[in-house]
Amino acid sequence: MRAPSPRALGFLLVAGVIALWEAASTARLLDPFYFPPAHAVAQSLVAAALDGRLAGAFLVSLGRGFAGFAIGGALAVALGTLAGRHPAVRQAIDPVVELLRPLPSPAIIPLAILFLGIDSSMKVFIIAWACFFPVLLSTIDGVRGVPPALLETARNFGLRYFESLGTVVLPAALPGIFTGLRIAVAVMLILSVVTEMVAGSNGIGFLLLEAERTFRIADMYAFIAALALVGYALNRLFLLVDRRVLAWHHAMHAVPAP
Amino acid sequence: MVFEGAGGRHAALGSVSLEVAARDLVAIVGESGCGKTTLLRIMAGLQRPTSGDVRLAGVPVLRPEPQVCLVFQNYAATLLPWKDALGNVLFGLRAPRAARPGLREAAFALLARMGLGDAARRFPWELSGGMQQRVALARALIRRPRVLLLDEPFSAVDERTAEALRELLQTLYREEPCSIVLVTHDLEEVLSFSSRIVVLGGRPTRVDTVIDRPGGLSREALRSRLRVVGKST
Q: Which of B82, B89, B135, B139 is best to mutate for the A interface (most A CBs within 10 A)?
């Protein structure tokens, strides 16, 4: 018999923890009020999926999340490209970036509420803010790492400034940029939930907090499990895009030079 | 022209005057660090001389021109690793999407002529040094340049590959309607190809010797004419 793969063992471990939880809760080794049996959580999860609560909440949360991710990511790639290409831009933005970057994004939620209120625009702003910094730094690093020979080639072939950015600089920097984008996807999900918990009337973060406040503990665990599954799916989806878009990069580093 | 070598990144050139006729193949030889590459970069419009100018059919070359194309010495690093050989050749036309009909076919035909028909869909990092060099050459040639500038084209490949590339370049010289300026260290290249050899020397660098039609000279005679740069050839 073939030994199971490490990934299969990982899934087995998750299944084992769930089975242990179920047994401990049913045998009342764990307080069932705080730790309802796994089957009750699964029932809540299925019910929320069937009655459309989960789909509706995730539609709202991910809609705002991707809007913020797109806005923050696009601005970061644009500014990061300029900063990566021009030391003067890099030095000019460095003090501001280094002051704002360590600031925990939830810390500016009160400020955002003051100016934008508590509706979607505030949440999209916070998500864009949080996604901006990892993408900015990875873009600057990626663009700075573009081999000078490629930049010379672009000049040699008479490419204009923006042409060379689009056809040489950005594709060459893409592996670096993707590192930042992957971090930003995780940050996007975190901030979607946090902003909805602080000031929300819909979305998965709001559902989760509401379940806790009304003592629907099985629902609360079900929503946490749904978030974990969506986070996992988002990461897998991102890796899929990464493997497709950067196929050349992965293959290049897997194949020894001829 | 004169180039003062700002910041010491590129070698200084004294008064260098050089004329290249249509369909000439001029080999530039000289000691290492004498400014051969700088001269090519200035001719390609990648660098401006401190004084003097470069003219193409009487028109000053102030920036890289489509009619002049330089193939760098570190050609492998100049190929776009995310594009296959065909994509790299099409990049020479600044046509990343290759929307115009016939371009892909032309690029493919050029690669096939270079003996790379089977490698058109392979990425640069999947190719040997000699194949990469031929892709870099094809990328320059697809522009149909009036002047092709080659910086030590065969210095980074083994002798067998260099021999094959020399033959290829000879064929191109016969068939392509362009002038070729070649910077080299290699006497074989100089002998078998050039319509003229320009020897750079002195401090600051100037044109030391010009040998016309070196093909008519024996290897020994050429060596004695080139004794000025004997160390580098």
A: B82
Q: What is the ipTM of this complex?
A: 0.83
Say whether residue A150 is in contact with chain B using an 8 A CB cutoff: yes
A183-215 per-residue burial string, b: 16 or more CB within 10 A, e: under 16: bbbebbbbbbbbbbbbbbeebbbbbbbbbbeee
pLDDT at B233: 38
* B81 contacts on A by Cβ (under 8 Å): 172, 248-249, 252
pTM over 0.80, yes/no: yes
- Per-domain boundaries in chain A: 49-101+117-146+174-242
Residues B121, B153, single domain; the answer is no
The answer to whether A257 faces chain B, any CB pair under 8 Å, is yes
pLDDT in tens, B39-91: 899 999 998 888 888 888 888 888 888 889 999 988 889 999 999 999 999 99
Residue A217: CB atoms within 10 A of its CB come to 18
Domain count across chain B? 2
Gap between the Cα atoms of A31 and A24, Å rounded: 9
Claim to verify: residue B61 and residue B154 sit in the same structural domain: yes
- Residue A181: CA count within 13 A, CB half-sphere: 21
Q: Is residue B138 located within the same domain as residue B175?
A: no
Q: Is residue B228 part of a domain?
A: yes
Verify that B162 and B225 share a domain, yes or no: yes
B6 touches chain A (CB under 8 A): no
The answer to whether A245 faces chain B, any CB pair under 8 Å, is no
Q: Locate the chain A residue with the closest alpha carbon to B91.
A: A157
Cβ contacts of A155 on chain B, cutoff 8 Å: 46, 64
Average pLDDT (A11-29) is 93
Query: And the tokens for A119?
Result: 């509706």
